Amino acid sequence: MTGRIHSIQSLGTVDGPGVRTVVFMQGCPLRCGYCHNPDTWDTEGGETIEAAEVFQKIRRFAPYFGEEGGITLSGGEVLLQPEFGTELFSLCKAEGLHTALDTSGCLWTEKIEALLSVTDLVLLDIKMTTDADYREYVGCPLEKPLFFLQKLEEKGIPVWIRHVVVPGLTDTAENIGRLHELLRGYSCIQKMEFLPFHKICMPKYEKLGLPFRFDCYPAATAALAEECRTRYESL
Ligand code: SF4
User: Fold this and answer.
1) pTM recorded for the entire structure
2) Which residues' Cβ are closer than 6 Å to ligand 1?
């Protein structure tokens, strides 16, 4: 089974627990205003590679994973290539490696369900908190990621929620309150990650000749993201 990948990060520490190899898939159906990987959007771009070949690369880094680490499939959007993900994760699990999926949760098919059967952890972006903002700034209805989250709850798959803090848009008390309302009651959610919006991706947009939609917003500090996390936890 071949897949289209953008790149492989040998050892990372920000996409799931412990030290991990991160495979960035090529192709995304969404257009998030703050996307820092616009070079992964094109479904015809990237490199075509066999899942078994990617597994052999990952395997070389396994000694560095320790107890917590493993592999994370990120993107782009992994859910566009569920069969590739299923084969790669199956190979990893046979070797006892922890598997994490970093996704927008915007799609749902039987093939995606098969991928989840070999997924240990989902890093799920809840990008906005109203349907209007989801449609405007992400490109899909809010109900899609919420449906995905409900499925994860039913399957008992652990979830880390990720929410990007954009000053003036998602850092408000109203937004954090709505986020809390949307997510309350899900026992599958193990962790909330508030990530500061940054603009270091701008040269990528310039190179691609694309406008950076969120250029109008200032970058967020780590302190602001922490403030949002504290506010969320106080609710
Ligand atoms: S889902 Fe991810 S890769 Fe796709 S546009 Fe949004 S931030 Fe970018």
Assistant:
1) 0.97
2) 28, 30-32, 35, 37, 40, 75-77, 104
